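User: Hi! I'm working on a homework problem where we have to compare a predicted structure to a textbook description. Could you give me the structure for the chain below?
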Amino acid sequence: MGKKLYLFLVLVLCMTSAIAQNQVVTSRIKADKEKLEKNVSNVKEALKHNRAVNSQYRTDGNSIISTTILSEDFSNFTAGSEAEPDALRLDDPETSEIDDTYFNTPGWVGLEVYQAGGCALLKFSNEYGETGMLITPLINTSGNVTIKCRMKSVNPEGDYVGYNIADEDLEILDSNIGVLSNDQWTEMTWFTTYGAENTYFYIFSYEYEVYVDDIEIVNHYMPTPTYLDETNITDTSFTANWEAIEGADDYNFFLYSEHTAKTDETYYLYDFDFNDIVSEGTDEFPEEPEEGYVYYEGWYFYLHMFFNGGIGLSGLYSEYWDYAYIDSPEIDLSSDNGKVTISTKLKGAAGEVVDLILFSTPNGYYEEVDIETFSLLDDGWNEYTFELEGGNEQSIIEIMYYGTTNLLIDDFKVSQNMKAGETKSLLIKDDLTSEPNYNVVIGEKYRNEKTYYKLYAIKYVLSYDPYYDDYFVAGGIVSDFTEPRYSPINNDGNDDENEDETGIEDFKHTSAHAFFNSGQLNVFNPNNEAVSVYNINGVCLYSSHSNGSIPSDWAKGLYLVKIGDKVIKAANN
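Assistant: Happy to help. Predicted structure tokens:
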């Protein structure tokens, strides 16, 4: 157990003991907790992938809402000065409590806290052999939270400083550090999404006494983007559109395929021949790009190399324990009781070691569930096939290369056995765009599958690094995911089923399309032909020359849409 954690536990135990003996404090904390519980009563669960938002700050608007959770300017610390801090220790040595009159918000505690003329000084505790600390009242740190304060070390060469967030059960939820490079005031900015509804926040330095001022803890709510109708629709592409979020820097766009097995089959989730990789490199002398990583079809390659028609991993830094690896996107591997087959062609130095690892979430978090460790057979190209077990709806495949030369990869396949009627979604695009739109091209492999997309918005949080005299991205304020939205050019390979099922016969197929999206009927009518909409009884409900959305209150059910000489089934589910 770390000293800071131990010290915090001691302080909280002292607080608990004192609270039990003080009915006034008990009453105040009870009232504070009731208020807190009322404010967060709508917060039921965190969003997946740590994209958590705090529902108490939600709004119907279309811009980021920032709400101050707690602020303290130490304006009541009137005694003393930075040059001559007051000699009176504010925290009670027995209970760690500090009189509420010193703070804008009641309930602060601490260790070795002193006034310094409008700021706080945290001195060294000889009793515990640690620097002092300052602990907030119980606050809500769930969601997107930034933590700002000013800090100043007494050491001319600076110090490390940090914070911890702990829940009511004293479990540390989040920790972070920062750097003071000298003895001047420095503005610290941290960002977290690892807080919770009822938490303590405490701040400290690591070695030297430190001044603290202007603490501000702020929750940021990013509204979820709102879809707009797709545009530029063709047989193989379209533009996805949504309303811009004021203040958003980027939007993370995800495109998925949805495959339904018509019969029992072996389904290839991924089948990469890498023929689209054009490089001056060869398998004898691969090209090593300056960038240390690349994404290929959603897979992350760290310390990658290229050769014409293939990709590889570099062992250049293996002697420094910086190993090259590949990570898949999150995959649904729940079919066939979690069994998955990986086959590939590899070329490297004989005897070099590779790990093939399957991570899944049997207990709600990622953990290694299966591993194949193998050595390369010789210096040439060889085929390898492995079967791993333990996959579920949230799985990741990782390849770790421990060699010191190069590992070249070609003809990479991931497959599972699927039962007839079983459906599986697959991430096929993960990309960032700063615009409120994204041009989608459906690859040939997925043109006989349904596809859908979703996205979330991001606002980057910057923090200053005094050593480099520059700002870096400390985190991102993010929205919830949008609801998945099916693509307007979906084709599940059942075109023949669209013909002659309600007495309307002999229509020829053209490039026209019709589909429902969020209850709205959309028509793609490139030749401006006559459009008619029929119910399943053959009654004409609409007739016009339309292209785009057809406004009407469409009931749930199946419709036939005639566009020129083509008839299309469209279901409003």
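For your comparison, note the following. The chain has four domains: 3-221, 227-260+424-486, 265-418, 495-572. The mean pLDDT is 83. Good luck with the assignment!
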